[in-house]
Specification:
This protein has 293 residues and is of the alpha+beta class. It has 10 helices and 10 strands. Strands 1-2-8-7-6-5 form a 6-stranded mixed beta sheet. Strands 3-4 form a two-stranded antiparallel ribbon. Strand 1 and strand 2 form a beta hairpin.
């Protein structure tokens, strides 16, 4: 995780102080790259505690094509509330708790101009199997025609896969990167996605390359970042992934099952642990910070 800490330190020491749409202000750098090999361990931040169950829940939410934050609430996750219930968005919401045409809906239900509905993730999986050397293994959540139909235009805007020597790698471009709160979450989530894709198409997950466009620290996070940078990281944990998850339908079906069981009163934590969990995860205590909306 030293690559992440290096970027965080570089932003604090060399970044430009800028105003932003939230009114909080940021210190930002541009065009950073982290290359994370899965053979070196799972990229979970250790200088504070990663909310890995929330990582799992949101990724399953995306892969199911949902935009309903009420489902996340059933799983104990409220990371979308600031956007889904924002004053600027509520008049546009299709129902109470609608986050809009966000990642999951763009990934699984892109609306083409001719009326077709495109399932980008299903198409990606089919292409990885049928034509692994293709240069078109790409999924985008950045839809210029629907930016006003989502409570938050995609920050992690697109990802692309590459297959060679029986291994699959993934590169993700993140246009806007909240280095303290968002990026550790995004790193873990796309590494988990890489492992899931590898499992589904019978390829070994290799390297996750994380490309950061506007990489920033909010002014309100400065003290929290200084505390984090003072801590020595622990070794990276390992990932356990349920071997029963062998297809996209398995993943989406498991999500629906978990949500239904949680709504009936089962504790969501153990249900999410049955999808994936971190092994030998040592970490420093959490560091509290508010999300800028």
């Amino acid at each position: 995780m030293r690559q992440y800490l290096d970027v965080l330190r570089r932003a604090m020491e060399t970044g430009s102080d800028r105003e932003d749409r939230t009114g909080v202000g940021t210190r930002a750098i541009f065009g950073e790259v982290m290359r994370l090999r899965m053979a070196d361990g799972f990229p979970a931040v250790t200088t504070k505690r990663l909310a890995f169950r929330s990582v799992i829940a949101e990724l399953l939410w995306f892969l199911s094509g949902s935009s309903d934050v009420n489902e996340l609430h059933a799983l104990g996750v409220r990371i979308w509330d600031g956007n889904a219930y924002a004053d600027y968005w509520k008049p546009k919401a299709r129902f109470e708790g609608d986050a809009g045409r966000n990642y999951g809906q763009q990934w699984r239900d892109w609306h083409a101009p001719d009326g077709r509905r495109v399932d980008q993730v299903a198409d990606l999986i089919a292409a990885l199997r049928a034509n692994p050397s293709s240069r078109r293994h790409l999924v985008t959540a950045w839809n210029p025609g629907e930016l006003d139909l989502t409570s938050l235009p995609a920050c992690h805007a697109l990802f692309q896969c590459f297959v060679a020597d029986g291994k699959v790698s993934l590169v993700m471009y993140q246009r806007s990167a909240d280095l303290f709160l968002g990026v550790p979450f995004n790193m873990a989530q796309y590494a988990l996605l890489l492992h899931l894709l590898g499992r589904i198409v019978d390829l070994v997950p290799d390297t996750f390359t994380h490309v950061l466009g506007d990489a920033h620290v909010y002014r309100s996070h400065f003290d929290a970042v200084e505390e984090q940078l003072s801590r020595e990281p622990y070794p990276s944990p390992r990932l356990w992934l349920d071997p029963a998850l062998r297809s996209l339908d398995d993943v989406a079906g498991r999500y629906r099952e978990i949500v239904d069981r949680a709504k009936k009163g089962e504790r969501p934590g153990p249900l999410l642990d049955g999808v994936a969990k971190l092994l030998d995860y040592q970490h420093h205590p959490p560091i509290a910070a508010e999300m800028a909306v």
